[in-house]
Amino acid sequence: MNKIVFDGDKTRLTETDGNISFEVHKRENALDVYDIKVEIEDDTDILVECHSDFKADIEVNVLKDVKANLYEFKTDGDYKFQYKYNLEKKANLRVEKVYDVKTANEMTIIDLNGDESKIEYFFKTVSTDKEKYNFLVHHNGKKSISNIINNGVNILNGSLEFNVSGFVNRGIIGCDVNQNNRIINLTRNKCVIEPNLFIDEYDVVANHAAHIGTFSFDEVFYLMSRGIPEEEAENLLTKGFLLKDITKYKEELSEIINKYWR
User: Fold this and answer.
1) pLDDT band for position 172 (cuts 50, 70, 90)
2) Alpha-carbon 237 to chain mean position
3) H or E segment at 177?
């Protein structure tokens, strides 16, 4: 197990099993921007936590045949991040992210460079202000797989946006390209999902799903008809929606939901 804490000049690897290498540098001539590089050399788990304002470019390299899980938990701050994930042949990376932030603007670039590389990406957020997430998923290796699942609940002054683009060039055969983006918008504020698939090869399975809306009347009514108050019903529905697919930071995510739906 490894643990990385983002905390300005104190950004550090606090625990390590020796299966990753880690570098951090503060960028010259830039205001509090950090360059961080993580190389995953053998099967392992990584925890990443950040609880204050932070700006960074992060590169994660997963070497050949390595299977890794990366769990990220962000709260409280204003964040501006660019991520780049590079996966070599038969590399397998699962990413789980749980956010309860002030604002966020992120660009995520995923390069599946090796044949049979695979990424599973699960993102969960409760949005109370402006959050924007952009994804570019490049299938450069044959038989590569991407499953990108983004779920958010938008409340208070929130405005949430997911832009997800998947790319497969001619000759990159046997790929699975999957996107599933859903926003539960409990405000009158604008939320946006833009799913894009740019596929230049016939031998590919590609799917996307996008939904913006509220919890259905039938779901809420069913719970209220069993004596559950409306706010508690929303709490239960939100937990069912956001906790799905999460294996780490489940307790923390449940506490975040309880904070907004007491």
Assistant:
1) very high
2) 21
3) strand 175-185
